[in-house]
Write a structure and sequence with these properties.
Oligomer: single chain
Number of strands: 22
Helix content: 25-40%
GO molecular function, one term: mismatched DNA binding
Shape: globular
Largest sheet: 8 strands, mixed
Number of helices: 24
Strand content: 15-25%
Radius of gyration: 35 Å
Low-confidence stretches: 1-22, 375-518
Protein name: DNA mismatch repair protein MutL
CATH topology of the domain at 45-232: Heat Shock Protein 90
Region (Disordered): 1-36, 368-435, 499-519
CATH architecture of the domain at 45-232: 2-Layer Sandwich
Biased composition (Low complexity): 373-392
Mean pLDDT: 74
InterPro entries: DNA_mismatch_repair_CS (IPR014762), DNA_mismatch_repair_MutL (IPR020667), DNA_mismatch_S5_2-like (IPR013507), HATPase_C_sf (IPR036890), MutL/Mlh/PMS (IPR002099), MutL/Mlh/Pms-like (IPR038973), MutL_C (IPR014790), MutL_C_dimsub (IPR042120)
Length: 718
């Protein structure tokens, strides 16, 4: 039985369907009946405004954003927002700005009427939040709008009220400034009102719109009332330092936790400045809900900025975590087009690569410095020996000829210096740079500074024996023998016991020959005391206990050294391996153009791609390290990146991925027994290695347990 036979006899889609229903399409020939042609004519002004409102006003939050923009352009120092039913019944924005003169009030609600621009040159160099003049007219076409304003310093002793529906102008009372009331949103377009969410959801969107403005203008106070109750208030920050004002506003908006887990940044290039705060990799979130980017004070969502920020976090974020940041980009208004989106939330840069580089460099510079190094600066200057230890570049220096001394072979095959030297002319030089010509695979570079300090510690502790050293200001129960703090017997398994005194009869007793090691309190990551299960290094510093993942830490150190080697010769490129038989694949015109235009960048990546036919590319060489992979897929991904982003960024990312793989395989493995000298050398290198707080995969390399946290674990002082 056919579908037509199963239908009721009385069914007729053209008869039974009302004008609001959707009749089923008829498959017969009569369904293709031509539609009568309509003449081209101008639309009425009211319909034009309602079409514009559909682009500008999506929900109550869109109205809030436009009205707050106008208030900020008027020079307001305090903005009060009052809402009813999440903004659907009432949106009232009150400011203390310059106000609107009486004779200009009636023009404020007209289409494309504005005081912000007057010619094309001003449109191309917009520096105000609003500029097109269509917002109030669009809102007026779908809601009941009224304006109450008093000009600052005007001759009138009162304000003026403009009723949008009637156009009536009447005197009213208020101080200087403007109040815009929008009632019954979408009353003229009830179909649009059905798409609104609950009052709580619309209120949340309105709050987010105000929060974005408040973050960019710390000098302006904001208050939000809903149903007659004050729900949010952010007071104006009266501070001359922009960073301090921003920190205060960020603390009010996002909480003090965001401040504690973020870094200040301020980078300035030619014609562009990037400043603000960027979150630590440890504070990354599962959602991108704390990413605020502003261009000349305007909140934007731009792919160039977001990609640049994400690329700066590439090798310090774990998995798909999202960074947090508040970035403020200051650029010449003529170099950015803000008139590319009805809601002004998107912009277009004249030179997107320049902005991409600026944002990436600003964040990378802020993240590069190890957080452990900040502790050294905060603690104040240390003695020269401690400063050399913190530099992590110490080496053994010889002022004169040394006699042959027996050397001890330790866990990683590293030649260690003797515990003491009878030559009175020899002393360790803590700040001597590394010798030129060593390769990263020479792991002894990682431990040289540690060897020198452990030798000095053994010299001192040989004199002290079991003597006890007390630190001023510390409780007696926390005092430890100096020998236990500064020395260890190389033959003792450090994973089983802490450092023990090292007795040596060969140690000289004269004060001239004894070298005083720097106190471990000057070292941010402290002094190693043990190894746990061959995986973690335990160290003590001035704050308490430090836990270090030795593989992750060593992986980052090797990785950064490899990157430095490549940066020293950026034109060398990656080693490539020619294919015996070129791999051909179908390509789009854009891919073919990219392969021809970026041949040099592809060569640096170890790729050789050339046109084979008008619609085909041939892959003739791939990176040697990836010879066993899918070369065609690699070529496609690289071409896509080159077409969308800066070529140098793609080259650097590809290099870093290969170097990260090499560093992971070259780092010390778990369950490898290290001596205390090797552990301390690793800690000193961590303190001076960029991004040493995370490994190449974004995992943390160390954690700090403060004494107060340890005391709480054991209920001390309770």
């Amino acid at each position: 039985m056919t579908k037509a036979a199963r239908r009721p006899a009385t069914y007729n889609p053209r008869v039974n369907s009302s004008s609001s229903a959707h009749p089923l399409p008829d498959s017969g020939p009569s369904a293709a009946a031509p539609v009568p042609r309509r003449p081209i004519r101008e639309l009425p002004d009211e319909l034009i405004s309602q079409i514009a409102a559909g682009e500008v006003v999506e929900r109550p939050a869109s109205v809030v954003r436009e009205l707050v923009d106008n208030a900020l352009d008027a020079g307001a120092h305090q903005i009060t927002l009052r809402l009813l039913a999440g903004g659907v019944r009432l949106i009232s924005v009150e400011d203390d700005g310059s106000g609107i003169p009486r004779e200009e009030l009636t023009s404020a609600l007209k289409r494309h009427a504005t005081s912000k621009i007057s010619n094309l040159a001003e449109l191309e160099a917009v520096h105000t939040m609003g500029f097109r003049g269509e917002a109030l007219a669009a809102i007026h076409s779908i809601a009941d709008v009224s304006l109450l304003s008093r000009e600052a310093g005007g001759e009138d002793g009162h304000a003026w009220m403009l009723h949008g529906r009637t156009g009536e102008l009447s005197p009213a009372a208020r101080t200087h400034g403007t109040t815009v009331e929008v009632r019954e949103l979408f009353y003229a377009t009830p179909a649009r009102r059905k798409f609104l969410k609950t009052d709580a959801t619309e209120l949340a969107h309105c709050l987010e719109a105000v929060r974005r403005h408040a973050l960019a203008r710390p000098e302006v106070g904001f208050a939000v009332w809903h149903e007659g109750k004050l729900i949010e208030q952010w007071r104006a920050c009266h501070q001359d330092d922009p960073q301090a004002a921003l920190a205060q506003r960020l603390g009010d908006l996002l909480g003090q936790e965001f401040l504690a887990q973020s870094l200040a940044l301020d980078w300035q290039g030619q014609g562009i400045r990037v400043w603000g705060r960027t979150g630590l990799p440890d504070a990354a979130r599962a959602r991108a809900d704390r990413q605020f980017a502003y261009v000349n004070g305007r909140f934007v969502r731009d792919k160039v900025i977001s990609h640049a920020a994400r690329s700066a976090y590439e090798d310090v974020l774990h998995g798909q975590r999202q960074p947090s940041y508040a970035l403020f980009i200051e650029i010449d208004p003529t170099r950015v087009d803000v008139n590319v989106h009805p809601t002004k939330i998107e912009v277009r840069f004249r030179d997107g690569r320049e902005v991409h580089q600026a944002v990436r460099h600003a964040i990378e510079n802020a993240l590069a410095k190890p957080r452990s190094a900040a502790g050294t600066e905060a603690a104040g200057p240390a003695d020269p020996a401690a400063q050399g230890a913190a530099s992590g570049l110490g080496a053994m220096a010889e002022a004169g000829p040394q006699p042959a001394m027996p050397r001890v072979q330790l866990g990683l095959g590293i030649q260690q210096p003797p515990a003491a030297n009878p030559n009175p002319n020899w002393h360790p030089a803590w700040s001597r740079p590394e010798p030129v010509g060593h390769q990263v695979k020479d792991l002894s570079l990682l431990w040289q500074a540690g060897h020198a300090r452990e030798s000095a510690a053994a010299t001192l502790d040989g004199q002290a024996g079991a003597a006890t050293a007390f630190e001023p200001g510390q409780p007696a129960e926390r005092q430890q023998p100096a020998a236990q703090l500064h020395a260890a017997r190389p033959s003792i398994d450090p994973s089983l016991t802490a450092a023990q005194p090292l007795q040596s009869s060969a140690v000289p007793t004269s004060g001239a020959d004894a070298v005083e090691p720097p106190h471990s309190g000057h070292w941010p990551l402290g002094r190693a005391i043990a190894q746990l299960h061959g995986i973690y290094i335990l160290a003590e510093n001035a704050q308490g206990l430090v836990l270090v993942d030795m593989h992750a830490a060593h992986e980052r150190i090797v990785y950064e050294k490899l990157k430095q080697q490549f940066e020293a010769s950026p034109d060398a490129g990656l080693q490539s391996q020619p294919l015996l038989i070129p791999a051909t694949f179908a390509a789009t015109p854009q891919e073919i153009a990219t392969a021809e235009g970026c041949a040099e960048q592809l060569r640096q990546l170890g790729l050789e791609i050339s046109p084979f036919s008008p619609q085909t590319l041939a892959l003739r060489a791939v990176p040697a390290a990836l010879a066993q992979g899918d070369g065609v897929e690699l070529a496609r991904s690289v071409l896509a990146e080159l077409a969308q982003h800066e070529a140098s960024t793609v080259v650097q990312r590809a290099r870093n991925e290969l170097l990260a793989t090499m560093a992971c395989h070259g780092a010390v493995r778990a369950s490898r027994r290290l001596t205390l000298e090797e552990m301390n050398g690793l800690l000193r290198q961590m303190e001076t290695t960029e991004r040493s707080d995370q490994c190449n995969h974004g995992r943390p390399t160390w954690r700090q347990l403060k004494l107060s946290e340890l005391d709480a674990l054991f209920l001390r002082g309770r």
